Amino acid sequence: MVDDGSTDYTDELLEFYCQKDSRIQYHHRPQDRKKGANACRNYGLELSKGEYVVFLDSDDIFIETTLQERIKFLNLKVNQNPDLLLFHTGTFKYRLGDSNLLWNRMESGELVMVLIFRFLNSDMPCHTTGILWKRKFIIKIGYWNENLNSWQDWEMHIKALMMQPVVSINTGPPDTFYRLNVSKSIATKKRSLAYLDNVANAIKSIESISLGNQTYPIFKNDIKNLIYRSLVHYPIKLNNLKASLKIIFNYKFKSVSRKKLLKVFFIELLSKSHSIRNFLDNHLDLCYYKKRKIQNSFLKVYSK
Hints:
CATH superfamily of the largest domain: Spore Coat Polysaccharide Biosynthesis Protein SpsA, Chain A
Distance between the termini: 32 Å
Strand order of the largest sheet: 3-7-5-8
Mean pLDDT: 89
CATH topology of the largest domain: Spore Coat Polysaccharide Biosynthesis Protein SpsA, Chain A
Largest sheet: 4 strands, mixed
Low-confidence stretches: none
CATH architecture of the largest domain: Alpha-Beta Complex
Structural class: alpha/beta
Radius of gyration: 21 Å
Strand content: 5-15%
Oligomer: single chain
CATH class of the largest domain: Alpha Beta
Number of helices: 13
Number of strands: 9
């Protein structure tokens, strides 16, 4: 475990468990490392020695058999030498069993390109805790991006998939559980310029990686529509017009021009009126409207 600066009784609690089981290690994030989950993950990765690693945030949960069953699945796939093994993740609000939503559902044998497409279309197939990583592979792709405080898992997972890894998918029941955000503060967070800065930087990172490995032509339209949805449509929907304009003027994307972004910004602004939106839908060739209304199964699929 890597502590990011707890001010409660974590030290005493972990000291007890470390004495009880020598396999448990407890470390503090070095003072010269950036505060945040990514720095802690990277520091823990640097200290790790296992062939495979898995990340668990403090507010998420493993069941008692998570690691045991993942090792069993890994042994079944060992001849394939997988870089990533994906597992289903469930959800909870306050305690296990109070939500029957899955993070998402995956199918056995889903192609890497399909997984990338799903991420780019806000249909995140897997959660951070739902991945068993080959340690050498995650080091090869360059660790977690410590400059991101939001969308870091989205950026990391696409970055990994664009390296065309060997992926094995376990379609069984969830073996980890993600805490649903039940605080009203999430809306405030999404209205902030800092949040949009992280989103823009994450998208620019993926855009750059896509350009570098020749996948850009395949995903250009998906990246473009993601920019429209995330940096124009949703901010305006949350009355975050000023922040959206700052992002448009502060960032330059390869997938879409600033002029086009401004055009979409004013279209979205006008579309807040129902009558004007109907007029635009009926009189302008704006296929953008249809593309922004994506269909996904993220946090919508009920567990069986």
